[in-house]
Amino acid sequence: MLQLKKAFTLLEILVVIGIISIMVAMGTASYSTAQKKARDAKRKTDLRTIQNALEQYYSVCNYLYPTPAPASPGLVNEVFCPNPSIGILQSADTPIDPKSKTKYNMTDGGDTYLICAPTISATMGLETEAAAYCLKNQQ
């Protein structure tokens, strides 16, 4: 009499592979979303840090906000104040966008400023670049 070996059928193996594939796809999507939310949180924290430095500069430097160096893109590269004690405004210390590795955009007029960073928003299952997160002067 022949003895049959116990083994998995092809169908059972395919079902298990399908389930594992679905779980991996869901995990990858969740990880990607978590990364985007973490980058947005970092951008917002960076902007608050820059805002805090600008407000400190304002109180130290005769109630004026710094202006960008001539012909320099991005944030303030040099501090035009007799007492440049605000380290965050120096170009080496300026926070940068976690994904694009560029400086945040700043618009200023000497007595006002506006700093912005793009954020990612998830709507209807689609992730798109939303309106920028911006902070303006507190004075």
From TrEMBL:
One of its GO terms (cellular component) is membrane. InterPro entries: Bac_GSPG_pilin (IPR000983), N_methyl_site (IPR012902), Pilin-like (IPR045584). The chain crosses the membrane at residues 13-34. GO terms for biological process: protein secretion by the type II secretion system. It is a single-pass membrane protein. It is found in: Membrane. SUPFAM superfamilies: Pili subunits (SSF54523). It holds the Pfam family N_methyl. It comes from the Bacteria. Keywords: Membrane, Methylation, Transmembrane, Transmembrane helix. NCBIfam families: IV_pilin_GFxxxE. This is Type II secretion system protein GspG C-terminal domain-containing protein.
